[in-house]
Design goal:
The protein folds into 2 domains: 132 residues, Gcn5-related N-acetyltransferase (GNAT) (Aminopeptidase), CATH 3.40.630.30; 161 residues, Gcn5-related N-acetyltransferase (GNAT) (Aminopeptidase, 3-Layer(aba) Sandwich), CATH 3.40.630.30. 32% of the residues lie in helices and 30% in strands. Strands 1, 2, 3, 4, 5, 6, 7, 8, 9, 10, 11, 12 and 13 form a 13-stranded mixed sheet that branches. A hairpin with a 2-residue loop joins strand 2 and strand 3. The longest helix has 17 residues. It is globular and about 65 Å long.
Length: 307
C-alpha cells in the first residue's frame, strides 16, 4: 500500500532530489535549485508533484504538467520509481499519473524515460504509449580534450550575463533562442514562452548557475550556447550543455562549433571534468558533438499516448 503525497514548496525534498539525481545522473540539481524551479514554473502549466511512500521509504517521484498549446489537452509526465520498484508497482504509478491527467480533462500525453531503466520503456509500451524519438545522452572528458575555437570572420563570441545586459540585448537573446528552438526535434509543437517567464529562469538558482556564450555580429545575436556547471553541493564536478543554436541566416559558418568550443574551454578552465548533453539522434548537433569528442553514455526515450 502506497501513500501518494502531494509536494509543495514547504515539503522535505531530500529523498526526492536523491532519487531524481539517480534517475538523471548527468544533470544533478540541488534542493535550492529544485525549489527555484518550483517557484518560477508559470501557474498556467498547473504542475503537480507527488512523492510515493512505501514501507521502505520513498518509492517513486511523479510529476505532471500541461503542455502548450493548451487547446490540445496534452500533459507532460515523468514517472521516476526507485530501483527496487517491481514492474507491477511501476504500472500502478503510471496508472496513477494518467488518471490524474484524465481527471483534469486532458486527452493526450508526452512521457520521457531513460535507457538506464529499461523496465520503464517496457512499462510505457505496455499501456499503449508510442515510442517517438531517442535522444542519446553523450559526455566528453575535458581532462583529455583541448580544442581551440576557430575564429569566425566578422563575429564576436563572448560571455552573455543575461540579467546584466541591456534590455534590448535581452530581447535579442530571447528572439534568437526561440527562433533556433523551433527547429529542435520534438514530437509535439514547440511554443515560445512569454519574455517575462524567460527572464524568470535567469533569476532562479538554476539559471544563475548557468553561463551563456553568444555569437554577435554588431548588436545582432546570431547564435548561443548554454552551459551549466553543476553546483558543488551535488558532489559532481561536471557540467551540462543545455542548448546550442544558431539563427537560420547564419548557419554553416562554423558558429555552433565555435560556441561549443568556447563553452567547453570555459568549463575546463573552471576545473570541470565531464560535460554532458543530449540531442535527438538525427539532429545535426549530435553529429557535431561527436566530432568534438562527445561519446554516447545512455539515451532518453520520448513517448506519446492517448489518455
Amino acid at each position: 500500500m502506497f501513500e501518494y503525497r502531494n509536494l509543495n514548496p514547504d515539503s522535505d525534498f531530500a529523498e526526492v532530489i536523491a532519487l531524481r539525481n539517480r534517475f538523471f545522473p548527468d544533470n544533478p540539481i540541488t534542493t535550492e535549485e529544485f525549489k527555484g524551479m518550483m517557484a518560477t514554473m508559470a501557474p498556467r502549466f498547473e504542475k503537480m508533484r507527488w512523492a510515493v511512500d512505501g514501507d521502505q521509504g520513498l518509492h517513486a517521484y511523479l510529476t505532471i504538467e500541461r503542455e502548450e498549446p493548451f487547446e490540445e489537452g496534452r500533459e507532460f509526465i515523468f514517472v521516476m520509481p526507485s530501483e527496487e520498484a517491481s514492474q507491477a508497482e511501476i504500472h500502478e504509478f503510471i496508472e496513477f499519473t494518467t488518471a490524474q491527467c484524465r481527471a483534469r480533462g486532458s486527452r493526450t500525453y508526452t512521457a520521457m524515460t531513460t535507457s538506464l531503466r529499461p523496465e520503464l520503456r517496457e512499462a510505457w509500451e505496455a499501456v499503449g504509449a508510442e515510442f517517438k524519438q531517442e535522444n542519446p545522452v553523450s559526455a566528453i572528458d575535458l581532462r583529455q580534450w583541448d580544442m581551440p575555437a576557430e575564429p569566425v570572420p566578422g563575429v564576436t563570441i563572448r560571455r552573455f550575463d543575461f540579467l546584466n545586459e541591456p534590455e534590448a540585448l535581452q530581447h535579442e537573446h530571447y528572439d534568437m533562442f526561440w527562433e533556433a528552438m523551433m527547429d529542435v526535434p520534438w514530437p509535439t509543437p514547440i511554443v515560445a514562452e512569454p519574455f517575462e517567464e524567460f527572464v524568470d529562469y535567469f533569476k532562479a538558482p538554476l539559471g544563475r548557475q548557468g553561463r551563456d556564450w553568444v555569437a554577435m555580429e554588431g548588436d545582432r545575436i546570431l547564435g548561443m550556447s548554454q552551459v551549466r556547471p553543476f553546483h558543488a553541493d551535488t558532489g559532481n564536478l561536471g557540467a551540462s550543455t543545455g542548448f546550442t543554436g544558431v539563427r537560420k541566416e547564419a548557419r554553416r559558418r562554423g558558429l555552433a562549433r565555435a560556441l561549443k568550443c568556447h563553452a567547453l574551454q570555459d568549463m575546463k578552465a573552471m576545473g570541470r571534468t565531464m560535460v554532458y548533453t543530449d540531442n535527438e539522434e538525427n539532429n545535426p548537433m549530435y553529429q557535431l558533438n561527436l566530432q568534438l569528442g562527445f561519446r554516447q553514455v545512455h539515451s532518453l526515450f520520448i513517448f506519446t499516448g492517448t489518455l
